[in-house]
């Protein structure tokens, strides 16, 4: 039973990490940009949910297209060697979408459920997002055998940089254009 669980986790790990990472990064980038521009919590929620669903669908569909394209290329080789291709592109795309939406929703939680000033909502969102980055990044260590701390910090750093860029752009646009 344990081997089956690990095989399932390993089979969909790339989809989960890819979807979760992009969901967290893009949703928190929307949150950061909106907070940098001092937009209202209602606007943050609208932009965040629109991004979450549309970009999550796009990620899942793109994963499906990538896998089916790869399978078409490999089909001739597999037929020659008597092998079968069992990648199940629909399952991979659903895993990507589910991870994107689930993890990507975390940065929005403070804006939906907490009635506190925008700066506090953003701070809570940033802390929640940092933990999510670290957790998703460190989960890669179960399969790739890299150190737990290294994997987690690597994703935290990349996500943090994306967030800083988005916040700065939101602030700059608000200062110079609005």
**Overall body shape:** elongated
Low-pLDDT runs: none
Helix percent reads over 70%
Q: Total number of helical segments?
A: 7
Q: What is the CA–CA distance across the termini?
A: 58 Å
Describe this protein with a few key phrases.
about 180 residues, mainly alpha, elongated
Question: How does this model look, in words?
Answer:
- There is one protein chain.
- The chain has one domain.
- Helix content is 85%, strand content 0%.
- Helix 1 packs antiparallel against helix 2, helix 1 packs across helix 3 and helix 1 packs parallel to helix 7.
- The N and C termini lie far apart (58 Å).
Concise summary:
The chain is built from seven helices and no strands. It is mainly alpha-helical.
Task: Give the secondary structure arrangement, pairings included.
Elements: H1 2-36, H2 41-81, H3 89-104, H4 109-113, H5 118-139, H6 141-144, H7 148-176
